[in-house]
């Protein structure tokens, strides 16, 4: 690498990937592994707000009560763009869309469906195929399948495009993104220096992977918020919880294989690749599922690896997602005068406590509770803010809905230490926005168990 040329950097978020499943399937990934990395939250929007600003969700006012990334602080991509970086982003998660403001600072910001459109020359035009076909009924669909397999097209994208157009129910779900990105990258020329952000969803519900990976049938959405299970909806948590756990594991293994190929591309194109999860997932621990409530360690303890020439080994420092912002700017050689909670991952303060936050129910979780005739007392209980703390010795303590005490070992005066961190926050007071969510975004959120 030219010593005068700023490095190119890729930041990859493996959405919803638990630390223990990362350790099980991603032992092939080279780089420095941060064994005690913590998210700032239990779900996507606030966690990414921290990655992009180096601050806690309440500080920038981007969390469950305000979903829009509209804080006055510059986003990471904006700062990089101001320093002559080419910035490109891709998100398979509809929560991280231009509608919610997460495209700030990116020269281009894509989604899987965008890439299907951009690569339309390699995708079957199903409307034209049906109009021009000399076959009908099952014979027409059989010929369409053969065209996908043997035609000069992208087979997987063509199948998905066909499913999206012919299915009238919700059985078509958003692709995880890895395959789409790999195809897209082969067509890109990145100007130096470049910054690339990716969010991949293979480990997220509905826990789907190709047949060769799935040892069980893909389960229905779990229809739960923490340990609250909705009896009036189809629910696998009651009938077959083992199937959910197995399906998640199959998806984590699939993601590992997909990311191995993608990482090979990225490492050839970028000087540094940062791989991290935004949060984990509950798989029956604490009688809870999903990631819509709580700050249990299964949700907040995340994998984090920085890959690059000469980088290897393990670090036991307690670090946070807020540190990614500072680290990227330091790697880029950019002096950052912005107020931040973050530190350079390669030079972290071993005496620092880390805060984790649950900021209350999302609008769709609250709607689901109200629709299920949940009492106001229960709704208020699950809407209360919760906090956790990770300490320099690697201990973690966290509040629960009962709030009787903090659960965790090895931390002296955890409540007092949590409260000190909370008191030090400069909270941005925001009002919820009632903007209508576009139909296409809402449909994608519903497919993932949200809206």
Textual characterization of the structure:
By secondary structure, this protein is an alpha/beta fold. The chain has a domain at 9-119 and 154-349: 3-Layer(aba) Sandwich (Alkaline Phosphatase, subunit A). The protein has helices spanning 19-25, 44-53, 57-60, 76-82, 112-118, 126-132, 137-150, 155-166, 178-185, 236-239, 241-269, 297-300, 322-331, 363-371, 376-382, 414-423, 439-447; strands spanning 9-14, 32-38, 86-91, 108-110, 194-200, 224-225, 228-229, 272-276, 282-283, 289-290, 301-302, 304-308, 313-320, 354-358, 386-390, 396-398. The strands form four sheets. Strands 1, 2, 3, 4, 5, 8, 11, 12 and 13 form a nine-stranded mixed beta sheet that branches. β15 and β16 form a beta hairpin. The protein starts with 8 loop residues before the first strand and ends with a helix.
The CATH architecture classification of one domain is 3-Layer(aba) Sandwich
Can you give the helix content as a percent range? 25-40%
The CATH homologous superfamily of one domain corresponds to Alkaline Phosphatase, subunit A
Q: Main beta sheet: strand number and arrangement?
A: 9 strands, mixed
Low-confidence stretches: 116-120, 166-174
How much is the radius of gyration in Å? 22 Å
Task: Give the DSSP E fraction (strand runs of 2 or more residues).
Answer: 15-25%
Mean pLDDT across the residues is 85
CATH topology of one domain: Alkaline Phosphatase, subunit A
Number of strands: 16
Q: What would you call the structural class?
A: alpha/beta
Q: Globular, elongated, flat, extended or rod-shaped: what is the shape? A: globular
Ends distance: 46 Å
DSSP helix count?
17
Under CATH at level 1, the class of one domain stands as: Alpha Beta
């Amino acid at each position: 690498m030219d010593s005068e040329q700023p490095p190119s950097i890729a930041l990859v978020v493996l959405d919803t990937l638990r630390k223990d499943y990362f350790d099980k399937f991603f032992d092939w990934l080279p780089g420095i592994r941060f064994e005690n990395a913590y998210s700032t939250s239990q779900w996507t929007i606030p966690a990414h707000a921290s990655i992009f600003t180096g601050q806690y969700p309440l500080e920038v006012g981007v969390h469950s009560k305000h979903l829009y990334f509209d804080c006055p602080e510059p986003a990471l991509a904006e700062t990089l763009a101001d320093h002559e970086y080419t910035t490109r982003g891709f998100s398979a998660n509809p929560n991280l869309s231009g509608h919610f403001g997460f495209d700030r600072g990116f020269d281009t910001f894509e989604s899987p469906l965008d890439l299907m459109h951009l690569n339309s020359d390699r995708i079957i035009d199903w409307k034209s195929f049906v109009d021009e076909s000399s076959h009908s009924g099952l014979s027409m669909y059989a010929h369409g399948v053969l065209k996908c397999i043997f035609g000069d097209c992208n087979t997987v994208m063509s199948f998905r495009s066909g499913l999206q157009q012919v299915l009238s129910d919700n059985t078509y779900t958003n692709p995880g993104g890895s395959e789409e990105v790999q195809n897209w990258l082969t067509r890109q020329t990145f100007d130096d220096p470049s910054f690339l952000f990716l969010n991949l969803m293979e480990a997220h519900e509905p826990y789907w992977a190709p047949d060769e990976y799935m040892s069980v049938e893909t389960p229905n959405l779990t229809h739960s918020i923490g340990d609250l299970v909705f009896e009036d909806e189809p629910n696998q948590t009651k009938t077959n919880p083992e199937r959910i756990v197995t399906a998640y594991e199959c998806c984590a293994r699939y993601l590992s294989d997909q990311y191995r190929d993608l990482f090979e591309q990225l490492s050839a194109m970028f000087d540094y690749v940062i791989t991290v999860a935004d949060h984990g997932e509950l798989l029956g621990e604490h009688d809870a599922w999903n990631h819509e409530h709580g700050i249990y360690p299964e949700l907040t303890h995340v994998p984090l690896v920085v890959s690059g020439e000469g980088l290897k080994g393990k670090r036991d420092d307690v670090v946070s997602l807020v540190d990614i912002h500072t680290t990227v700017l330091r790697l880029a050689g950019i002096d950052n005068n912005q107020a931040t909670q973050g530190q350079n991952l390669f030079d972290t303060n071993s005496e620092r406590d880390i805060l984790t936050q649950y900021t209350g129910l999302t609008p769709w979780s609250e709607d689901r509770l109200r629709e299920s005739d949940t009492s106001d007392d229960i709704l208020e209980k699950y809407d209360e803010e919760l906090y956790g703390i990770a300490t320099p010795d690697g201990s973690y303590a966290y509040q629960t809905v009962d709030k009787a005490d903090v659960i965790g070992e090895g931390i002296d005066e955890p409540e007092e230490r949590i409260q000190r961190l909370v008191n030090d926050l400069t909270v941005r007071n925001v009002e919820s926005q009632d903007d209508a969510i576009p139909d296409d975004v809402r449909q994608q959120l519903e497919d993932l168990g949200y809206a």
